[in-house]
Amino acid sequence: MDTKRLIIFGGIIAVIVIGVSFFSPKPQSKEVSSQTKPIISVSTFALYEIAKTVAGDSVEVHPIIPLGTDAHMFTPNPSQVADISKSSLFVYNGAGFESWAENLKNTLPKTTQVIDMSGHVVLLKGEADHHGEETDGEHHHEGAFDPHYWLDIDNMIKMTQIFDAEFSKLLPAEAEVFHGNAATYIGELQRLKAEYASGLTECKNRTLVSNHDAFGYLASANKLENVSVIGLSSDEQPSAKNIADIIATINKHGVKTIFFEEFINDNVSQTIAKETGAKAVALQPLENISQDELKSHQTYLTIMRENLKKLREAMECR
């Protein structure tokens, strides 16, 4: 083949190669693949942890309430509402915990399925022995159900089963993955429940005193007496008489610790502790977690174990 023909032949081959590479379908990139994942929006930290654990890499889970904020007082801004509207599934706590969700769910597009998780768990009435007075805030739950149901580990198991079922309907091809992830997490929850049962069996004192009635489910599940300064709403303000009543209760039962929440002002707890000689100790109700807790890879399981350690010390358990 002479030089001229070789050049012409090479040019033809080059044109063919360029044409094939231009018109042939390109493989989907990882980024495109991630964009096809269903988006799930959830409100509370407990819902977020379960959803992420069950979903694995198959579903994109978006937490709505920012880390480090009082979940009781949160209201989504227009941008967050727009994000929820893009979700295939929106799961919220319910039982009066997010007043904004009750209004929002009726405005979402038909493409967004809505689940009120409180309809799938066992709820307790808000009947703790507390001494708070209501204010005119918007986040009260008095006379209603206690919305902190994730602190009952049996409810966490039920919630995990719901996510497993819903994700399997959403992505049937990934059902086995969801079933496996859910089974593993439920096993971890059952071990945690056993630790609480054995850890709080023999205690010198079984009275749990807190500044906010967020621990009713934890107390009920473990046969503890639940006493709080204020009720289910974190924005209540106790009167001087209320504080005096709590001090009398602490002295009567020989309580050595009053618990408070990290995201709620602890001035009342510190005042009561000073008056009674009790210690004021933070107990995590897991309505939300802080940035520091997230960075240190804290989870529902690790935080609940830390709570158990604090309860055992406060109640002088063997």
TrEMBL record:
The chain crosses the membrane at residues 6-24. One of its GO terms (molecular function) is metal ion binding. Keywords: Membrane, Signal, Transmembrane, Transmembrane helix, Transport. GO terms for biological process: cell adhesion; metal ion transport. InterPro entries: AdhesinB (IPR006129), Bact_metal-bind_prot9 (IPR050492), Lipoprotein_PsaA-like (IPR006128), ZnuA-like (IPR006127). It comes from the Bacteria. Belongs to the bacterial solute-binding protein 9 family. This is Periplasmic solute binding protein. It comes from Sulfuricurvum kujiense (strain ATCC BAA-921 / DSM 16994 / JCM 11577 / YK-1).
